[in-house]
Amino acid sequence: MSKLIKIAAALLAGGVAAVSANAQEIERTSQGFLDPGIVIPAGAEVFYMSGKGNHAWGEGCQTREERQAKGDECQPGDMYEQGKAIFESFKAQLEEAGWSLSDVVMLRIYGVPGEDGTVDSAAFNRAYREYFGENSTSGNTNLPSRTFVGIHSLVVPGWIVEVEARAIRMPK
After folding, report:
1. How far apart are CA 154 and CA 93, in angstroms?
2. What is the dihedral of CA 26, 29, 32, 36, to 10 degrees?
3. Which of 90, 103, 132, 147 to pair with 37, CA 20 to 30 A apart?
């Protein structure tokens, strides 16, 4: 074989290997609600979202005067309501960037205990199940891996839950 043919064959083989690598899919292996495993192939695109809390509370409801002026509009909500506000915020941010909730592969959740000393994870999980999993009302059947950590407090007054998310997809 001539040197030119060998170079062309090597380039063609390299191109086929690159196409095969890009054809890989994100693999989701689930052992149930709390045990999803996710395999991310090389070349995936990543989208990070952090510090999401109940922004309806955080915007214009920080000071006593703002809360008095806005009244009920400034109620921070319970763990369910704050969780729902967070997932709506994630959904909007992802969709604006051309992504979706089905691309979310990891959540890190920080919850503040109530007066009884426990984090109301059941209420948060009600909101979570509306956006993730086979029975979600959002249409997203994927489950992300996740960690839920109880903490003493959050930076924004009134927040009792804050969530970080990582979304990953293969290039289109």
Report:
1. 22
2. -50
3. 90
Domains in the chain: how many in total?
A: 1
Q: In a 10 Å sphere around its CB, with 0-12 CB exposed, 13-18 middle and 19+ buried, how is residue 102 labelled?
A: middle
Q: Give domain status of residue 48, yes or no.
A: yes
> Which mean pLDDT values do the consecutive 10-residue runs of the chain (172 residues) have?
47 40 68 72 92 66 74 77 91 95 95 94 96 90 93 86 95 88
Q: Using DSSP bridges, classify how beta strands 36-39 and 27-30 pair: parallel, antiparallel or unpaired.
A: antiparallel
**Residue type for position 154:** L
Distance CA 76, CA 60 (A): 12
> Please, which residues bridge with residue 104 across strands?
167
Question: What is the domain-level CATH number for residue 95?
Answer: 3.30.1330.40
Tokens representing 60 are 């214009």
Q: Which residue has the tokens 């001539």?
A: 2
